Give the backbone structure.
Amino acid sequence: MIHCRDVQALLPQYVADGQPAGDEYAIVQAHLHACQSCMAVVERLELVDAGLSRWPMQQPPPGLTERIMAAIDKEAPVEAWSLFPRSVWLPVLTLLVALVLAIHLTPSVEPNGAALYGQLSADPSLLLALWIGVSMAISGVGLTLALVHGRLPDEEEMDHLRHRLSDTAHRLRRLAGQ
Amino acid sequence: MNDPLAELVQRAQEGDRVALAELIRETQGRVYNLAYRILGNTQEAEDLTQEVFVRMWRALPHFRGDSKFTTWLHTITTNACLNRKRSLRRQLDKQFDATDMLEMLPSSEKGPAHDALIQDEKTRLWEMVERLPEKYRLVLTLFYQQQLSYQEIAHVLTLPLGTVKAHLNRARNALAASLEKVGIR
Ligand SMILES: [Zn+2]
């Protein structure tokens, strides 16, 4: 003998599914034939289901589409995706400049090099120290720029990134499929 | 996937402004109503609707039609609602909640339920829906008003199918119990 409480636990789905026949509902149906209080629950659930199915949609306020379009127009155009955004290429460039300076323009102790740097060339180790200093300063500028441009992405940018990753995965899968 | 909006979506993706406006006009009612059900305030619902469509527009180039456009839009909308109502996400994830059934039953004092008695039957039902905890309002709206399938709701809310059905059944039960308590049948 099935308990009313167990039957009533099944009733919302039973009513929402349109009181389906079938073995799993045979016990429920048999119980409903015999039990008035469970049948009353079915009737109330039917009332709820029918009422909710006629749920009216509220009319959105007039002019909403125009306001949405205006909000979209106000948005800055989304920056096109690039392999090297400014936050990447600017520090890279300064670091490269520093590297080139350090490697190629280091004053040599050869005669013409010495002439180029005048007096200072009298002491090559001083010049070397100076150039190392300049290179390090430029590298520092590069790193600072990288840190200034580097910030934590907000939620939308993370969404964007996820989209981009899934898009790339999608393209790769398609490529692999071909 | 047979999506009646597919053509508009494609034209909007190609940068057709007229198609974009048409797409928004076709779908703003759903977004607005869902937002209104959850936020319970017309001004907030309009703000959220604008926010949702700006997000939709930004993400549109990445929409590939794996799901129906409206399902995708519902996902953006519910995420925006859940962002505003942080506690709603936690409520949704809880399948069994002993306390919220008590909240759902109309009180015996003279309150909205009492006032509801003198209104017609249909209005009474909406009153009762308004009084449900928001997670039940959300799933009821998605199922009955926005006419999403159980599967689609599970997808939109990233919940297991069983949890979606459990939430809906508890809400149906609570409404049926409320009907009994205010004396309808
Ligand atoms: Zn019974």
About this structure: Chain B touches chain A through 46 residues (CB under 8 Å). The CA atoms of residues 8 and 23 of chain B lie 6 Å apart.
